[in-house]
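QA checklist item 7 of 12: single-chain prediction sanity check.
[x] sequence parsed
[x] length recorded as 227
[x] structure emitted
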Amino acid sequence: MKSYPLRFYVGKKLLDAQLEMVDLIEKALTDAGYGRDFVAMGVVNAYAESKLVPTASYKTSKEDSAGLFMLNRKGGLGADMPTGFQYPQGDSRKDANLNVARIIKAIESSSATKKEIEEAGNDWRSIMDVWVHRIERPNGKHFEVVKRLGTAAEIFPQGIDGLPINQAGAMAWASSGALPSSGDVTTTRKWNPTPAILVLLAAMGATWYARKRAKEGRPFPGLPALR
């Protein structure tokens, strides 16, 4: 069963540019073979790190981090990423695609991380432990796990399955041909009153006309008592 993109489950107010980063992260991690819940927690971590702003940066005497996942040049995942005029602001870490690709590379290079991702299944707490302890590694890891799970509840308040929060956007997306057929997505069918109203009006009209004919002494065959 094909699910709606994560952007339609976002309950937190985000700019269009931020939602584009949600799409980018989802596509990259999904294409790399990771499950939907792991991908969703990836979006949450990117929000926690950079507010989903690909050119975000932070510098101190001990840190030089930039990009969606705030890759650190000083001993972190951004250590050997190149600079040059061909990159946003001259920094390859601020290229959203390259930033996410570096995260995927880091995951793929660690068999222990991949094993923990598999063992975590779809449990958000376990997945967040992997993101924080194995991938992002911020200061105050245990505190950050709790904090980021709170952020996850803000971004995806009703989860990431079933009928999306943004129903209008999701239905417009589906009707645009993005989904092969309506059967690929589980939706809640709503009653459409229009056909029933039309049938009722037609019945009322027919009854009125039959009574009119009966009063004029011209009843329809089989309806002599309709007066």
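[x] summary fact logged: The chain has two domains: 6-184, 192-227.
[ ] second reviewer sign-off
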